Amino acid sequence: MINTQPKPKSRDLSNYQFLEILQTEWLVADLRAKIYFRHKDKEYWKKVKEGKRVKIEDISERNNLPSIFTDEGLRKDFEKKVYNLTSIPNFIYRNEEDRQEQEYYDLMYYFNKNSDVRIDFFGEIKVGKVLEYKPYFAAIKVQFDNGDKFDTTIDKVTRIL
Q1: Which of 87, 97, 101, 145 is most buried by its number of CB atoms within 10 A?
Q2: Number of compact structural domains in the chain
Q3: How far lies 3's CA from each of 7, 46, 48, 51, 110, in Å?
């Protein structure tokens, strides 16, 4: 027998609030699809992105609202909510349990060894690669393009995607 009862809501949000959250979640899923390198993980996040995109476009069209897919200015505004000028992006988690399961991997893959990064080197922007980073620690070791190695903190480093 098919269950025809609607799925209970986990959050009590207006359609507009839900649309805003979905757009932010889409950007985070897009980021994860870029930084995770296992094929299985990439495919999972691509699938999550596609599901969120369909829902965003549906709500957007039904309510005649712009979305991150139709309005470049809006997309840039949402990207500012996710991406910081330096350090780690604002990853989003459903709840504390999701954070505990996912955050370690987000941090590990974001600053994965050999990832290209931009470094604030005493006010000058330099480019290099991650040599070593351990999630939940502020320290990170990078190597500039000229071969010099430098120990710094993650608040001075941003991944180049």
Answers
A1: 87
A2: 2
A3: 10, 28, 24, 22, 41
pLDDT digits (tens, 9 = 90+) for 124-151: 999 999 999 999 999 999 999 899 999 9
Return all residues near 130 (Cβ < 8 A) that are at least 6 apart.
111, 112, 113, 114, 115, 117, 140, 141, 142, 157
Domain-located, residue 43: yes
Q: Which two tokens stand for residue 143?
A: 């190597």
Q: Which domain holds residue 146?
A: 116-159
Q: pLDDT tens digits for 97-120?
A: 999 999 999 999 999 999 999 999
